[in-house]
Each structure stands twice: as C-alpha cells, then as structure tokens.
C-alpha cells in the first residue's frame, strides 16, 4: 500500500505546527528560501515517479517466478514484523552505501543540502534514486508479498519524518534502540566528527552494531549541511550536480580502472595525477555561514505565493495522474519542474528571474486550455495567470526596484 501520498497533508500540517511552535518559543528553525527549496525537491521526487517507466516491476515479477523460495502468508502478524525489521536492516546498508560510494552519493546528496533542520528537511528527497529497487529483490526471493513490502517501506519513511527537528531533546533509553531527533541531527551535520554517522531508519541498533554510531555532544553543537555547500536554490542542479562533477572527473581519469574506481570509491577520491572537482576548496569549511542571498520583500512574497500554487498543482497531478495520458502527464511534470526552477531563480536573486517568470506564466496560459479541468476552474486559473504576468511586467517596467535582484 502506498501510504506516502495520503500522509502528505499531515506532513504539511505538522510543518506548520513546528513553524508556529518555533515562533512562540523564540527558536524558529525555518527560512523561506531553504524551506521552498526543500519542498520543491520533495515535490519533484514524487513527480518523477509519474514519468520514469523503469523495469523494476518486470524484474520483481521475474524474481518471483524463478527464484522465490515460497510465498509467505500476508495475513500473519509475524510476517509483517519480520519484514519491518529486515527492511530496516537493509535500509541501513542502502543508506550507508549512499554515503560511502560516490555513484550512490549522487542519488542521496539532495537530502543533506539543507543548512537548516526541520520537518521540511524531511521532505527534501532526491529524484535520482536509480539503484534503490535492487535492495527490494531479496524480499521477493524470500517470499514477502509485494503489498507487505511496499507498505513497510512507506511506514519506514513516515517514521523518519518526525526525527527531522531541533525541538526534541534526547529521549533517554530510547536513544539506545531507536533513531531519534538527537542522533539524526548528527547524521545531517557537517561537523567533521559527525560526518557519515547514524545511518539507521527506525532502529539505531544497526549503527551501534556496525561501528557507525556517534552521539550528539553538548560540546560540539551540530551545524547542518554539506561539507562543500551547494549554494544554490536550483532544485534541478541540486539533483544532478554530483553526477555532473563525477562525469568530469571520470573523463579526466587515466585508464578504465581508475574511471571505474571513481564510481565505487568514497566521494572525493582522486585518481593518480588528477584533482577531483568535488574536492573541498579549503581545509576546513566555514561552518558559520549559510547561503542566504538578499532579495526584496516583493520577491519573497511573490515567489512564495507562486510556489504554493505550484505545489497545489503538483498534488492535483499526483492524485489525477491515473486518469491522464502519459503524454499529458509528462508535459505537466516538465512544466512543474520548470516552475520550481524559476522559483529558485527568484530566491537566488538572479537577473533572469523576471523574464523567465513571464515566460513560465505565458506557457501556463498556453497549456491551460488543454488541461482536463472544469470550465469555471480554467477561467479562474487563466485570470490568475494573466494577472500574474501583468503584475510582474508592470512592476518591471514602472517600479524596477521592487523586483530588482540585489545580487546582480
């Protein structure tokens, strides 16, 4: 059972509650630009599943037909419990390899780019997970029904949502058994002592057993983000930047052996005689600085309002995708991806944000008549899109300082 889609409204509600609590207690952990970027990546991770037609389903069927030992009963509690525990064990190794193998790191890095830590960070997921399905294969060999496995996968992810917060302190004896906010804060830290630690999904026992556990230390406050910061609100670049730099390194590496080693060695490994483009540019990064380009108040309000509309459209597409053609779905996903990209341009204070926004809205007006919506909704969205184009264009011409990009 796919539970994530049903959980999304509750995720957003809890994000709002955490934001409100942070304001009340004087410890707000949200920034508008970082949160928009995290939720953009989360939305894209769901949307890409609508258009990528992988072969994983056919591979699962092949494994079941040829190598399954026996079909386990789906109505037995012990089957569910065993699947839950085994999957968390497998998830630990998938997660650990996602940090320790360069080719896998590129498919996981997006989750660690945020320099804030809140429930919004939990939704910051990759669109590049090309290898995760391989870790499901042992479950089909052992005979776990698909409905049990994928329900367990969803439950594992849902559990991980709540541990992305700074507002929950250490939880006493629970710290020894379960993944908690404290030991997951360590996992998202860029302090040298904390890097590549605490990989567990639900149980922290695996980290204690296999030597990857690190306690959160009072004397070493956690600083969140990457050792080499992304410094961008572009959600597309956030997904591909590691692979782009890895391809450049592979092209420069001497001989086939070193090219292959670059893919399976830890991130930052250098082939003899070369210098990786992923290498830290300084011995110890400045952990006190956060990427936070200055923008005008209009830009922030406008980008936020357009982002909300894009998220609503994304949720509508996810719900209605089964009734749409593949071509229509792919076109909608491409447009929404471009929309999230343009929102990032606004937040980065890029000079191209205004004309790209006008282009995005004009494309919206062109595509809208082809959307399977009621007449009243189409007219309303048309007026909204036309009004947005007019507003941005008028402000650009008559009051340029309102939309002036400070950094350019």
Description:
The protein is mainly alpha-helical. The protein is 57% helix and 0% strand. The chain folds into two domains: 4-209, no CATH class; 297-403, no CATH class. The protein contains 17 helices and no strands. It starts with a helix and ends in a 5-residue tail after the last helix.
Strand content: under 5%
The main pleated sheet reads as:
none
Gross morphology is: globular
Q: What is the N-to-C succession of helices and strands? A: HHHHHHHHHHHHHHHHH
Number of DSSP helical runs: 17
pLDDT averaged residue by residue: 89
Radius of gyration: 23 Å
Helix proportion: 55-70%
The number of strands is 0
Low-confidence stretches: none
Structural class: mainly alpha
How far is the N terminus from the C terminus? 48 Å
Overall tally of domains: 2
What topology emerges from the helices and strands here?
Blueprint: H1 4-24, H2 32-47, H3 56-67, H4 77-100, H5 102-105, H6 119-122, H7 137-142, H8 146-161, H9 181-187, H10 205-209, H11 235-252, H12 255-264, H13 297-320, H14 326-347, H15 353-367, H16 375-398, H17 400-403
Helix pairs in contact: 2-11, 2-13, 2-14, 4-8, 11-12, 13-14, 14-15, 15-16
